[in-house]
């Protein structure tokens, strides 16, 4: 593809990197990435992916911007309180980089629609806030053969991993076979989270996504990165492919998407002005 | 033999805020029982009623998941370190 003068300038710091170059930048502009959640993790990942020139970005979120989101969800702002998060995210991305086509899904992803929604993307990012959605996303990514860049956080801890069972690497269920039963683990943000931690984890997801798209370096496929903000430590541990994985193992028992029950604290009345 | 065990944030309420504790045991099962003695309630957070590790909690021996070793029967040697790593879900809202 031919770059415009403006694109050459905009992406110059990428283009001069031998690992990216004009070819890599052109690849990014033709790439399609789906981000689940325009919240704490989605905000920084979406912004860096847009800045990097990832040509098509899909974003799904059923919520509207709330004042309590702004402590960490930096893609939104005070004027957008009450507006659907996906529209607020689209506005920020389009201002940041007019090259990007943004596809929005304002609503929940379910067993019935998730596979179709993620089908046309190259890489999918999980920035969701609950276990049922994480397992749904993992299973859908597996069935659709998509690389999944997963990030999660809790208080001062964060986890990042890349799952690509279609290439012989483990999936999320190889790491955690089943979600916790209702009520056992506080999975909602009522437990609190350090705002800037979302930046650390979301940006790591963006880094891994860009590497996956370009096919450079070594990603976290087969590893889990654990960040402890209080101790300021990163620990990388191995994730093994589980031969007994119910989803990607040789004797898999999960043949279609299944829905898990939501945890009580995740129910909230999302009222939107528009 | 005292083994260092890293405690994740959600369980630190049970360890009086400590992020690293020491426990005695020849294998991981013994370590968990020793942890339970010092910090009552910790075992049920990481193990099912039958004593098996819960399916959303992993224990790493150094940088390897014990499910792919001998699980709770994995033997320990000096300077080994354990980390308890539960699944966490937060991201958005």
How is this structure best described in words?
The complex is a heterodimer of chains A (274) and B (93). Chain A is of the alpha/beta class. Helices cover 31% and strands 17% of the residues of chain A. In chain A, strands 3-2-1-4-5-6-7-8 form an 8-stranded mixed β-sheet, with helices on both faces. In chain A, helix 7 (131-144) links the parallel strand 4 (123-126) and strand 5. In chain A, helix 4 packs parallel to helix 5 (85-96) and helix 4 runs parallel beside helix 9 (195-214). The longest helix of chain A has 20 residues, at 195-214. Chain B has 93 residues and is α+β, with helices and mostly antiparallel strands. Chain B has a 5-stranded mixed β-sheet, with helices on one face. Chain B is globular, with a radius of gyration of 13 Å. Classes of the chains: A alpha/beta (274), B alpha+beta (93). Chain A binds chain B through residues 37-42, 61, 63, 69, 126-131, 134, 151-159, 175-180, 185-189, 191, 193, 198, 224, 226, 228, 230-231, 235-240, 242, and chain B through 8-10, 19, 54-56, 58, 60, 63-65, 67-68, 83, 85-93.
Short description:
The complex is a heterodimer of chains A (274) and B (93). Chain A is of the alpha/beta class and 274 residues long. Chain A has nine helices and eight strands.
CATH class of chain A: Alpha Beta
Largest sheet of chain B: 5 strands, mixed
Low-pLDDT residue intervals, each spanning 5 or more residues of chain A:
264-271
Provide the β-strand percentage band of chain B: 15-25%
Report the helical percentage of chain B: 10-25%
The count of strands of chain B amounts to 5
Q: How many DSSP E strands of chain A?
A: 8
Q: What is the CATH class of chain B?
A: Alpha Beta
* Average predicted local confidence, pLDDT of chain B: 93
The secondary-structure class of chain B comes to: alpha+beta
CATH architectural category of chain B: Roll
Distance between the termini of chain B: 44 Å
CATH topology of chain A: Rossmann fold
């Amino acid at each position: 593809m031919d770059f415009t003068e403006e694109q050459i300038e905009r992406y110059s710091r990428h283009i001069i990197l031998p690992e990216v170059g004009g070819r890599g930048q052109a690849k990014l502009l033709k790439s399609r990435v789906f981000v689940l959640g325009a919240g704490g993790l989605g905000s920084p990942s979406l912004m860096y992916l847009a800045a990097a020139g990832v040509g098509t970005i899909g974003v799904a979120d059923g919520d509207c911007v709330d004042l309590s989101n702004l402590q960490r969800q930096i893609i939104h702002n005070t004027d957008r309180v009450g507006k659907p998060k996906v529209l607020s995210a689209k506005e920020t991305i389009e201002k940041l980089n007019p090259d990007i086509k943004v596809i929005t899904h304002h609503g929940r992803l379910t067993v019935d629609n998730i596979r179709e929604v993620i089908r046309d993307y190259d890489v999918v990012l999980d920035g969701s806030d609950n276990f049922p959605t994480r397992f749904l996303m993992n299973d859908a990514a597996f069935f659709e053969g998509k690389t999944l860049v997963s990030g999660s956080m809790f208080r001062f801890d964060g986890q990042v991993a890349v799952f690509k069972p279609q290439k012989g690497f483990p999936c999320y269920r190889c790491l955690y076979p089943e979600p916790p039963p209702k009520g056992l683990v506080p999975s909602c943000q009522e437990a609190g989270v350090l705002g800037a931690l979302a930046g650390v984890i979301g940006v790591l997801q963006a880094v891994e996504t860009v590497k996956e798209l370009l096919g450079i370096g070594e990603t976290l496929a087969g590893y889990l990165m654990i960040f402890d903000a209080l101790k300021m430590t990163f620990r990388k541990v191995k994730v093994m492919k589980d031969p007994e994985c119910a989803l990607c193992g040789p004797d898999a028992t999960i043949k279609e998407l299944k829905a898990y029950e939501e945890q009580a604290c995740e129910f909230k009345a999302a009222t939107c002005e528009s | 033999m005292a083994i260092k065990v890293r405690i994740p944030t959600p369980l630190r309420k049970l360890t009086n805020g400590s992020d690293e504790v020491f426990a005695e045991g020849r294998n991981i099962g013994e370590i968990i029982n020793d942890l339970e003695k010092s910090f009552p309630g910790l075992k049920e957070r990481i193990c099912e009623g039958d004593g098996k590790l819960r399916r959303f909690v992993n224990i790493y021996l150094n940088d390897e998941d014990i499910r792919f070793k001998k699980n709770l029967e994995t033997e320990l040697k000096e300077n080994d370190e354990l980390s308890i790593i539960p699944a966490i879900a937060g991201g958005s809202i």
